[in-house]
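User: Second chain of the day. Same drill as before.
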Amino acid sequence: MVSSDSVNSRVETLASSGIATIPKEYIRPKEELVNIGDIFEQEKSTDGPQVPTIDLKEIDSENEKVRERCREELKKAAVDWGVMHLVNHGISDELMDRVRKAGKAFFDLPIEQKEKYANDQASGKIQGYGSKLANNASGQLEWEDYFFHLVYPEDKRDLSIWPQTPADYIEATAEYAKELRALATKVLRVLSLGLGLEEGRLEKEVGGLEELLLQMKINYYPVCPQPELALGVEAHTDVSALTFILHNMVPGLQLFYEGKWVTAKCVPNSIVMHIGDTIEILSNGKYKSILHRGMVNKEKVRISWAVFCEPPKEKIILKPLPETVSETEPPIFPPRTFAEHIQHKLFRKSQEALLNK
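Assistant: Same format as last time:
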């Protein structure tokens, strides 16, 4: 039986209760509020820097010049921004639509039905339906519910916790994960060559076909009565090697670029790709893992499908590759396992929250 406590802890329940003001746990600290504006207006703005759009159509062209130009653009975006819109990425519009429809249909179910898939973070069961628990000293909460599960490799999935409703959820998500995995290989190849490495090197360093895990988190951001006071996801960098994001064309992603928050445009049929901490570490900081956050609004529900490509937690020591280090460019990251890197970030965050109280 579903407890009323878990239902009441959902942001969706709060949002649909008719409240005019949000609970204090969701109100961000003053220093974060100074630059939260109307996301729809910000998305329309053409002033200032814009997140690059990279056309992958010619990434494997037989024409060497054409191919190199495409690869150089991807590398440049990874160096300058660490985030980009990918178009002509090889994943069909039809499949992306199926993924979006299936995810939306799950979140459209009554909360009681979704609760059957609830995770239990306290006991370490992190896969499933959930909401953010306060994991830092300031006890802040984020304005989102989510569904989180491992989607690739196939032999590591636990289909028993995948939504059975809608009927297409499992098939569409599994197919999408498989296609994303192939796209990750393509991107990692170009990033390897961009560092002067053999093309398979970065993929090998993050676990290869057997060990690189693809974890999907469907973020559901309900409408918020006071969007100027809340965040869907607080500012962070991704710990992954790469992150791929689909969204429902409602703006909300902001990147911290050259000292300012930049709102990403909604580019039709694109997939947003982030370079994560793992690749930043291996490249000794040559590729950037950019600080970003998720905004909310009072008009439209925003949904995004983030797939994090993560190395195995304990098997690999992440550190700058020898080829990226020199006397003039010493290693800027200490050796750590992926698990240690996550712990380091959580510890640092809780320390900062304590200092800022």
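The chain has a mean pLDDT of 93.

User: Great, on to the next one.
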